[in-house]
Design goal:
10 helices, mainly alpha, globular
């Protein structure tokens, strides 16, 4: 693994831990932002692709066979692919758990490559929310929307645990 990839993974862990500190102090918009930053840095670390700035989802688009690129791009534009409610969030969380923990036996470590799909799904969960959780726009303020009653905040610990599991698997490959 390249040193730059290792550094991205280390920074990802720092962002994740900082996210939990913010969450525990009821700083929910900031916690969501740093959770997403952790996931984005994990994407860059595991794929070795660092030149996408804040467009980490483009890394996955490029990884897909070019014949499917149009279909993938159309899927990204569909509203139903976005995580806008608790029910959809829980489906994503269950899918990630299945990919991370139930596909292999518990005694068999995951390979870093297998983490790319759960990592992609984690990114997709936060894709729409990261900007709206971080930046006010007009009369909108994230401080009103992202409260303890918001579905992402209610399930924050599950998202945190999944990202931590992804990182734990990555760190098994850092020497």
């Amino acid at each position: 693994m390249k040193e730059e990839s290792k550094n991205y993974l280390r920074m990802s862990l720092e962002d994740l831990e900082s996210s939990m500190i913010l969450y525990s102090h009821n700083k929910y918009p900031q916690a969501i932002f740093l959770l997403q930053q952790s996931i984005e840095k994990t994407t860059k670390g595991i794929t070795g692709t660092f030149d996408h700035n804040h467009r980490a989802l483009n890394i996955y688009k490029e990884m897909v066979n070019k014949n499917l690129k149009k279909e993938i791009e159309e899927t990204f534009r569909k509203d139903e692919f976005q995580v806008n409610d608790e029910k959809t969030l829980l489906v994503f969380i269950d899918s990630i758990k299945l990919l991370l923990f139930e596909q292999d036996s518990y005694n068999s470590p995951l390979k870093v490559g297998k983490i790319t799909v759960p990592n992609f799904l984690l990114q997709q969960i936060l894709f729409k929310h990261v900007n709206s959780a971080r930046y006010p726009k007009g009369e909108y303020t994230p401080l009103i929307e992202y409260t303890s009653e918001h579905f992402l905040i209610k399930h924050y610990n599950k998202l945190y645990d999944l990202q931590k599991a992804c990182l734990d698997e990555c760190f098994k490959f850092i020497t």
